[in-house]
Design goal:
The complex is a heterodimer of chains A (511) and B (323). With 511 residues, chain A is an alpha/beta fold. In chain A, the strands form 5 sheets. In chain A, strands 6-7-8-3-9-10 form a 6-stranded mixed beta sheet, with helices on both faces. A 6-stranded mixed beta sheet of chain A has the order 16-19-20-13-21-22, sandwiched between helices. Chain A has a 4-stranded antiparallel beta sheet with strand order 2-1-4-5, covered by helices on one side. In chain A, strand 17 and strand 18 form a beta hairpin. In chain A, helix 14 runs parallel beside helix 15. The longest helix of chain A has 19 residues. In chain B, helix 2 runs parallel beside helix 4. By secondary structure, chain B is mainly alpha-helical. Chain B has one domain: ABC transporter involved in vitamin B12 uptake, BtuC. At the A-B interface, helix 2 and helix 3 of A face helix 8 and helix 9 of B. The structure holds adenosine-5'-triphosphate and magnesium ion. Magnesium ion binds next to helix 1 of chain A.
Chain lengths: 511, 323
């Protein structure tokens, strides 16, 4: 079992001025699960996309099973037995599962002939790996967990021996992630080789045999998982010691800043997503809302921040009502001291094509200090942005760079800096560290706690239970649109997990 | 003239004016489903009509005329393809440029070669398409009801007319039942998925553009070799834009396209019929209003009043892997 499935030698790749991979060497042993970790923008996805033939390396060699191969396009990678599940899914959203799986592997010019065969093969794979999915379902109607399953099936359908998974668990619920890991174990026991990219060090420790660490385009270390620790890996990734759990003192809750009463919200199809939710948020405390993704947290945030209209209920900000069932002007909410870090930074939080400094004032562009009469005061805007870049350690420190060119973690810092810096009374944060590396997580967590200590009221929504437990002073658990329980931050993971699954909640409600 | 007869005549001319719309809209279907917006249908059709008229006039062969129409139209499509696929240019700009270039150069070349004010010489019988009469059409015509429908509506059209209507199910079959169609639709929705599946995005899109060129060639040839006997400057008169509107109105689906083109064709035929004939109760309807109706209907559709028209997701966006 000591043969090498994949060997990369001296891989180098630049995107224009960005040197994404610098002379990378990597050996992956056959029949093992090999983890790859690194900060945002370290070059992990780039390296894997080169292996998959999606990008071309500027120089370097790829060896598969001891033979040097030229991988000019994904076709060559598929032929060499390599399959990849991309960080951003590569699915045609209005196609069915079956069509997506067949695409590129149709067997013949006319579809009908291949369809029956594909169905049979899909059934076999489903049975073998417990990867059930309705072949006739349309992708856009499936939850992300199932979409990812389709991606995995796509690779298995093409008989991949080497499977690359790029941050597969970022979008999964804990139960789904567990299931995925069982599938990976099973694939491994069949002799398949797996490369797993993730930001979650716990997953690395739990499932990988070996782990390689990347930092700023370089491969800095490879360790046998059994002989390393989370602390060592975090330090290797960031290049300095990292606090995995940020210190925080006692909360000193004061007046109620935000009160939510009987809030009910429906989604565009008319399904009740938030069902009669009530809670208070006080100055100087962090209230965490835990729950499996899709249980109404997103809609709750949207309703409070004025993006989505509520059906009924009341919300008071600083004692004064917000017209959540009517028209809410987000600008007015900002003026009244409510800041919002949206869950989906790409679609709601940023305009990726804008320069950093332009994004740094989005929504605050009418602020007098950025204006010169009716014109924008570009100098003031840039100076302000540069100051914020320094404060929040946003990298690269260039206010004129297009926002799309920052890594995920740094984009998140841009949004946080914008919303926190105005000193709002109430800060609503959704998924502050989704897809963000440990170094940036530490920084963001510290800032959130600082806000609390300055006497701000913070409402935190996250699907990461660890994050909720590390930051919150009180935890509300949402299930199926309802708040099914309130717990202290030292409640056990198991207890919260049951609430999140709706098990405990039903009992509590019945009592 | 009884009412039934009026209807038959109206429907007959509906079919006649719908044919180029159907060809052009199906042409647009192939490119837009592959993710390339094509506002240049008008220009391609016009170029094809000119090529057909000119070559048929010179060679006296209708088939060489048709071939020339297709070649010119495919060549123009490839220009659009090169600009928008290979050079990743703006697809609207490229399409508009083609429309302008063709509108101008057909007049200049026509005048230079034939000196008839931008026309091509009138075509003799052998150099243009002839209508096809079904067997017994004349005998059955007298049978009430069925007779006129058979003799005037079904029989007596050009071969290109029948081809246009045959292209509708054929296009559907290609798009939904073949590997080529599956990949073509995929490349218009998410080229990344196509690329990672090991298929060349660029080659797929070029093939779509070529299909478009062929169909526009038929549309143009129909105008100058069938509907009229020769090319007249600017003879497409906005049909390419109407076809584009029909494509949107039909939500990018083949059978809907046929219905939309027939509807727009009917409005056109109706407008011609109305000229000088005031409607009872309503009175005289301005022609301009009738001509604008296809666009008005499309705008109403786009505003969300008649369902939703969702364009192919990757439409108009060049495929760029490395920023
Ligand atoms: N297609 C592209 N064009 C230009 N630059 C790119 C492209 N893809 C990635 N980059 C740049 O290359 C660097 C490495 O990016 P990559 O996506 O490989 O990082 P990563 O380690 O996967 O990060 P993350 O954890 O955020 O996914 C980044 O600076 C990124 O901006
Ligand atoms: Mg990545």
């Amino acid at each position: 079992m000591d043969s090498i499935a994949i060997e990369l030698r001296g891989i180098d790749k630049s995107f224009g001025p960005v040197h994404a991979n610098k002379n990378i060497n990597l050996k992956v042993r056959k029949g093992t699960i090999h983890g790859v970790i690194g900060e945002n923008g370290a070059g992990k996805s780039t390296l894997m996309s080169i292996l998959y033939g999606f990008y071309q390396a500027d120089s370097g060699e790829i060896h598969v099973d001891g033979r040097q191969v030229t991988i000019r396009d994904p076709n060559a990678a598929i032929a060499a037995g390599i399959g990849m599940v991309h960080q951003h899914f590569m699915l045609v959203e209005n196609f069915t599962v079956l069509e997506n799986i067949m695409l590129g592997a149709e067997e013949s010019q006319i579809l009908n002939k291949g369809i029956a065969k594909a169905r049979d093969e899909l059934k076999r794979l489903e049975r073998e790996y417990a990867l059930e999915v309705n072949p006739d379902a349309v992708i856009e109607e499936l939850p992300v967990g199932l979409q990812q399953r389709v991606e995995i099936l796509k690779a298995l359908y093409r008989r991949a021996d080497i499977l690359i998974l790029d941050e597969p668990t970022g979008v999964l619920t804990p139960a789904e992630a567990d299931h995925l890991f069982r599938v990976l174990e099973q694939l491994k026991s069949q002799g398949k080789t797996i490369i797993l990219i993730t930001h979650k060090l716990r997953e690395i420790m739990a499932i990988t045999d070996e782990v390689s660490v990347m930092r700023r385009g370089e491969m800095v270390a490879t360790r046998t998982t059994a002989e390393t620790s989370v602390e060592e890996l975090a330090e290797l990734m960031v290049g300095r010691r990292v606090l995995l759990r940020v210190e925080k003192g006692e909360a000193k809750p004061a007046d109620v800043k935000l009160s939510v009463n009987g809030l009910t919200v429906k989604d565009s199809r008319g399904v009740t997503m938030v069902d009669n939710v009530s809670f208070n948020l006080r100055a100087g405390e962090i209230v965490g809302i835990a729950g499996v993704a899709g249980n109404g947290q997103s809609e709750l945030l949207e309703a409070i921040s004025g993006i989505r209209r509520a059906v009924s209920g009341e919300v008071h900000l600083n004692g004064k009502a917000i017209d959540v069932t009517g028209h809410v002007d987000p600008r007015e909410l900002r003026d009244r001291g409510l800041a919002h870090v949206p869950e989906d930074r790409h679609h709601v939080g940023l305009v990726l094509k804008f320069e950093e400094c332009e994004n740094a004032i989005l929504g605050y562009h009418h602020d007098k200090r950025y204006l010169n009469g009716v014109f924008l005061n570009v100098d003031a805007i840039r100076k302000d942005a540069e100051q914020r870049i320094a404060e929040y350690d946003i990298r690269p420190p260039n206010a004129r760079l297009k926002t799309a060119n920052f890594s995920g973690g740094n984009q998140q810092k841009i949004v946080l800096a914008r919303e926190m810096e105005r000193g709002p009374d109430v800060l609503i944060i959704g998924q502050p560290t989704r897809g963000v590396d440990v170094g940036a997580i530490e920084f963001i967590h510290k800032r959130i706690i600082e806000m609390r200590d300055q006497g701000k009221a913070v409402l935190l929504v996250s699907v990461e239970l660890d994050e909720i437990r590390a930051l919150s002073d009180r935890i509300l658990v949402m299930f199926a649109g309802r708040v099914v329980g309130e717990r202290d931050p030292d409640a056990t993971e198991g207890e919260l997990g049951l609430l999140m699954a709706g098990v405990e909640g039903r009992k509590e409600a019945a009592e | 003239m009884d009412f039934f007869h009026v209807i038959v005549v109206l429907l007959e001319s509906t079919i006649r004016v719908s044919v180029p719309l159907i060809f052009a809209a199906l042409a647009g279907l192939f490119t837009e489903r592959a993710g390339i917006f094509d506002i240049g249908l008008e220009g391609k059709m016009l170029g094809a009509a000119f090529a057909a008229g000119a070559v048929a006039a010179i060679t006296q062969s209708v088939w060489l005329g048709l071939l020339a129409a297709i070649l010119i139209s495919v060549a123009l499509s490839l220009v659009h393809g090169y600009a928008s696929i290979t050079q990743r240019g703006n697809q609207i700009v490229s399409g508009v440029a083609i429309n302008f270039i063709v509108a101008g150069s057909t007049v200049i070349l026509g005048e230079a070669w034939f000196r008839q004010g931008g026309r091509t010489p009138a075509l003799a019988e052998g150099a243009r398409f002839q209508t096809i009469n079904f067997p017994f059409a004349d005998t059955i015509r007298e049978v009430p009801f069925i007779g006129p429908i058979y003799a005037d509506l079904l029989s007596g059209h050009f071969i290109l007319t029948y081809l246009a209507f045959a292209m509708v199910p054929l296009s559907w079959w290609i798009l939904y039942r073949t590997r080529f169609g599956l990949r073509l639709r995929a490349v218009g929705e998410n080229p990344g998925a196509v690329d990672t599946a090991g298929i060349s995005v660029i080659w797929m899109r070029y093939r779509a553009v070529i299909c478009c060129g062929i169909l526009c060639g038929f549309a143009g040839a129909y105008l100058s070799l069938a509907m009229t006997a020769g090319f007249v400057k600017g003879m497409t008169a906005g049909k390419g834009y109407i076809a584009l509107a029909a494509l949107i109105f039909a939500k990018w689906r083949p059978f809907n396209i046929m219905l939309a083109c027939l509807l727009f064709g009917f409005l056109d035929a109706f407008a011609i019929r109305l000229q000088g004939n005031p409607l009872p109760l309503i009175g005289q309807v301005p022609v301009q209003l009738m001509q604008a109706l296809p666009y008005i209907l499309t705008v109403i559709l786009l505003a969300g009043f008649i369902g939703k028209a969702i364009p192919p997701k990757a439409g108009g966006v060049p495929y760029v892997k490395e920023r």
